[in-house]
């Protein structure tokens, strides 16, 4: 399959995404140009391909471990043959303090660890949503311990295992991969294990949305991602999914009681200079206090621009969001 191999192995190249076409040619991102690719021919190409092609799978999305590096794989059949797109995942979960966020935002979102509810991370594909919520979950476990249960399709970050928490307790994380896009059954299973934290890799089915809302008002801290272009779009998309199994009015009511925070994120820049650009919306975690954000969400009329801008100014100035 290979000719004129280069001196480097595939993991020695600087890339985040690898595309393998029907001829088994390898394409990685070209850092010289935005959204461009270049062809490479690594010295271990045949070994890598043998490993890739040997993985049994029924779903289009699955994972692979090659020489200690974790990959998320998307496998599709085009008109020319079978194609593979691989996302290279970090060897360890980065600290949320090192991802380029405003430190006041980080302080506030870390303060939600003792509350139950939903932290929803929104944005287009490939904009760092999973990395962000993985980093947040890791920080919670490192600081406060507790049991975390992740439901992913496929698993992307190395979260599973034991954590020695700063407060002297122990954290434990269990990672589960969804089979055949059945998010509902895995979420129901998670609820039976009494986790402190539930991580939902992506909300994209009615069952996932319904169980996510259910978990957010039943004593869990839920961290989830969803594809959306804005904060209102993220909230309405979640309700749209959930209202396949319950009324839209009921969905908005549960969401208004369960929501803690929505973060809409996109990445700006290239390579090492890439940084997150975020827009945020927080709800008062004290359900006994009045909260304009919760009232607006309950109404279903998501006119949230004023709340988003007011909170942005407060965060930048270090003013408490809620008195």
What do these coordinates show?
The protein has helices at residues 45-53, 103-110, 129-144, 183-192, 206-216, 231-242, 248-258, 292-299, 305-317, and strands at residues 17-20, 26-29, 37-40, 61-66, 69-77, 82-88, 117-123, 146-152, 161-164, 170-177, 197-200, 221-227, 259-268, 275-282. It has 323 residues and is α/β, with parallel strands linked by helices. The strands form 2 sheets. It has an 8-stranded mixed β-sheet with strand order 9-10-8-11-12-7-13-14, with helices on both faces. Strands 3-2-1-6-5-4 form a 6-stranded antiparallel β-sheet, with helices on one face. Helix 4 (183-192) packs parallel to helix 5, helix 5 packs across helix 7 and helix 6 (231-242) crosses helix 7 (248-258). It is globular, with a radius of gyration of 21 Å.
**Helix content range of the residues, please?**
25-40%
The poorly predicted ranges are none
Care to count the β-strands?
A: 14
What is the rounded Rg? 21 Å
CATH superfamily of the largest domain: P-loop containing nucleotide triphosphate hydrolases
Query: Topology as H/E string?
Result: EEEHEEEHEHEEEHEHEHHEEHH
Count of DSSP helices? 9
Largest sheet: 8 strands, mixed
Q: Mean pLDDT, nearest integer?
A: 90
CATH class category name of the largest domain: Alpha Beta
CATH fold-type name of the largest domain: Rossmann fold
Strand order of the largest sheet: 9-10-8-11-12-7-13-14
CATH architecture title of the largest domain: 3-Layer(aba) Sandwich
